[in-house]
Batch of 2 targets.
Target 1
Amino acid sequence: MTLLLQTALLSRRRLLETLRQPIWVFMGLSVPLLYLALFAPLLTSLAGGPGFPTGGVLDVFVPGILALMAFGAGMGAGWIVIGELDTGVIERLRVTPASRLALVLGTVVRDVITFAVPAVIVLCVALPFGFHSHWGGLGLLVVLMTLLTAACSAGSAALGITLQQIGSLAAVVTGLQLPLTLLSGVLLPLSLGPGWLQGIGHANPMYYAVEAARQLAAGTVATGTVALGFGVTAAAALLAIWWATRAYRRAMA
Amino acid sequence: MTAAAAATETPGAERAQAWAVRATALRKKFPSRGGGVEALRGVDLSIGAGEIYGFLGPNGAGKTTTLRILTTLLPADSGEAVVAGVDVRRHPAEVRHRIGYVGQLGGADREATGRENLLLQGRLYGMSRTDTERRAGELIELLELSAFSQRIVRSYSGGQRRRLEVALGIMHRPEVLFLDEPTLGLDPQNRANLWAQLRGLRDAGTTILLTTHYLDEADQLSDRLAIIDHGRVVAEGTPLELKQRYPAEVIIIPKPGTAELGSLATDLECDPQVSRVHIDDGALRIQVPDPTAGLAAVIDRLRAGGVGVLRVSLQEPSLDDVFLHETGRSLRDAGDPAAAEAA
């Protein structure tokens, strides 16, 4: 009960912070729309080819874009956390009786919302351009991607507190971004690649989320791939939240 | 309860209540290359309820580390600390309810308004919505925040932000308030205002523990203080008690052409009011344990000896003298940037 109240209070504070910087709201939306407008057309000639079984390129491409959005929405958390280490905000909050889990979840909830709102807009925009809607699948797809956002958000916050320096965090996150996203097949499905590439992909937790997302977008819900995607992503989210809570408990400016 | 039991239990209970903070043998070592830094080497503290207690020492002495241990931010390696009657190690959550903390960095949320900061703080301490509203209004008045409480904190001046941060620290009416270098970077007027507000809080019953490396702040603001150096408390008492341990100094500059200073010094040293005389750059520096009687005695001797005097001054001992005597260094030179307070 206290945890819920504190999480609500802290995520409200975070949302206010986001709304006061509309530039981030704008950028969060413009990047995926630019992908749709400027990158998706490159794929049209691939329609019907290998890796695009249903024929519509957007059916394959949109889930990948959503995964990229989830990654982006979550990974910003670390920067904010480091800013708050430097201004003493985290220290002040740690002296209050506020639950350390609530301190983590406040940020996670905000990031999930700042992912979900533009994600729904992107889906609506994609529909008239040939993205095939399968409502049940779409709903589950958004839920899966919010789990991915939560994992990234808590993981980034934990990294931020642990590394304490913007420079180190930037190096780690940009270093992770490329392998994590490429090896999950966000832009093009890994099934297009050679066996060794798919092999490495299996070591990447994000790969399972993206694979499951493509099946969900195609309307297939009851498959092992979907279950595995949910399982891996939920486990990653729980692990990251545990890590971040531990980091908050010990945080030092 | 029998009379005998009451007699044995009550004094103990009273004593436990009278201490707002008690720490015994606190030790803390920070790991580092070279074997680790011993930040605290056995700190003992007893702070009475309702006093302003100053913690004076150079950078790196262990002030912040002690404060962090007492406020549950950092576990001690060994030793015990009881704050507001609650054991810090065993019941940190309970301690957090009873204390307020204003860190060196402040910790106000820069992207929210002052009022929003206060409201969130109150709610996180479990205060009801109405109580939070009322208390925020009270503090906005008490600390004179009303002119800017609806503005985003990022736009505040240093003094405005510090006042808000003190308000955040006392939002939930804590029994003990901890402040880490509260006047660092404030101009003299803001500093004086903050002192007045802290005295007001003390008069209303709050125990205040603050760290400082300003001599005048420790001297004028604290009811009692501890001088800490290299992780140990080297002296403890009221500012007056501490200073009275050391003699005042009468400084005499004789008129040019005055006869032998040396024989004058020997003569003065015979006086029972004088403990020590030395000659420094043509001036006589005469240590007198009792400033008033000592000054009178010195003047009598000079008059009797017919010595012409150009200038007389009396230098009362300062906390820097106390620090100098206890550590062999002046506090002004003691800050060692390399051993900056283990952040």
Target 2
Amino acid sequence: MSGAVRVAAGVPSERAVTLKHGAGGRAMRRLIEETLTTGYDTAGESAPAWAIGLTALDDGAAIPVGDGWLVVTTDAHVIHPIVFPGGDIGRLAICGTVNDLAMMGATEPLGLTCSIILEDGFSRAELERIHRSMVAACREAGTTVVTGDTKVMGRGEIDGIAITTTGVGLTRAIVPDAGLRVGDCLVVTGTIGDHGIALMAKRHGLAADDVLCSDVAPVNGLVRAALASADGAIVAMKDPTRGGVASCLHEMAGKSSVAITIHEPVVPIRPAVRSAAELLGLDPLQIANEGKAIMGVRGGETAVARVLASLRAHPLGRDAAVIGECVPGESGRVVLDTGFGRRLVAEVDGDPLPRIC
Amino acid sequence: MPDVVGLEAARELKFRDPARARELAQALERVCAEVGRAPVSVMHVCGSHEQAIAKFGLRSVLPRTLDVIMGPGCPVCVTDLPEVDEAVVLAQDGVRIATYGDMLKVPGTAYSLAEVKGAGGRVEVVYSASQAVEMARDTTEEIVFFATGFETTAVATAAVILNDTPPNFSVLSAHKYIPPVMEIVAEMPGTRIEGFLAAGHAATITGWSIFERFVERHRIPVVVAGFEPLDILAGLVKLVELVRDGTPRVENMFPRCVTPAGNRNAQAQLWRVFRTTGGRWRGIAHVPNGNLRLRDEFAHVDARRRFRIDLQRLWTHAPSSLAQLCICGDIMAGIASPSRCPLFGRECMPETPVGACMVSSEGTCRIWHQYGGHPSL
């Protein structure tokens, strides 16, 4: 055998960061909990009275200011391909941060920061296109970029472009992701799985761009309308991005110490997304969304009807639906009623879809 | 103008109609009661069946008196340690390995392919045998396709081999053949298996008549079933009926795809390229005629003949103490369920699998971990 290279024994995989640590599932949560959130002062007299800080692992942090809260969130974007059906990395970078603010109740972002890292040789025209798309997304969301930073790295040192945005916003009332109680209903604001499946389809050349299309959009307007109509009935919110609805529900259920039952037949999924997911062997519940929210609604049928009506009146909420409810049972357990029987809903293991946001 | 949406709905309703599923579940309850003893134990030998059963939550509607056991139906799980080791050694020696994604994390004696890849070995995931051939066409380097799977994927491997492969392409075959292992399970001392649910997709190739001799020999009924929820429930109803009536025979409940003779062309290709030979299936036993190896005529694409694969250097590694607690073998033989394993859900998790059953998306432990194995949900 010529040119043989003896490869050394494997590095024990638990000592290295791998793609699974970025997949939004259990491995990622453990990495964050065991390393990245440790050591910072969150208590003590000099520290501010955090309402929601780093260790809460919520969509963002909330710092008390006056009689309200300043919400801060940050998000890095490394999506591949950078242009995809329904959007591009620029639109995604704005929407991701605007949506994380909205999930905390801050639906009117004061401003965003934008840090861009580019690879030597990146096309100027492409950058301009991404920039235009960021400007347009800011207009949709009613916000703007107020400061930024730009770095260029050598060829091969980064893959094209990475964008990190940070957002700040004010709110009177925080909506945490841990606010669920037994009896609360779970509402999803639209069809699920569109973003991740559109990306997979694009990568595998599965379908025309207009058949499978990302849902990437700023949902702060939609959420604002729902919160206004709900009169306090929306008690928990989270956006089902990486890890999809499955991870989102696991997290909400675990933090709220409830179990959740979901009814598969009423979960809104586009037929094309359902077919493509089946073809790719993926579960739409585990697929990322970039323009959706899961809301916990308290107060019975009238409250739910009110929230649903306000969501459905908004262009981004037409397919909103009640998909399940919080039930007594093992904390964090999410059960799916398939219409044929019942099973557990799994969290994402490993990384079925790397680089989707 | 045809009503496309309506047609789609009709197709969907045909195999995914919860109302019909309830009727079938009731029928199954009735037939099981008519057997007059409990439990009735049947086995399927296909990861896709377990996937479908788990994904649709069917176990929660099965009669408590019916045990549907997953047998050695996951090709990744039954790939033996030395077979993984062969691929590991080749990758350590700098050969590029192309294989199905599920194989990466399967533990070998010392390392998995994923660990060799993490240390700089070149192991690449492919979705088909032809994709591995394409990889070889794009380079002058040696590409070894580490080929796993039952007769379904073995046919695909055979097809590319018959189709004029580039000189730098070879195959490390860990392909396995299902019918012989059914004999092993049927003859296992203390077996409780009273019927087999055979895999519809494998039977599209082999044909259902291949099971006739098995039924004659063992007096155990075999029902060929598809993979939609209604296919599986209908297959189980038929199987338990045959058990109840004491009339062992082969029934084809997947007639929209499976014929008595199967796909003769595919069979011809399969047997032109492969011969059966005995070998160990991980956790099960030595299975006579259970492995598919390349015929002499295809020595030029046989990685085992092209490379000197020295496994001895891996054998200084003692198997981990955890691995000795793993009961994958009993699980695949239908003797135990994952809930009886001391490692399941603790030391053995999808990200840190101890046994192969936790690796593959078709492995019993992985499926139970993902969807929950208990009907008590």
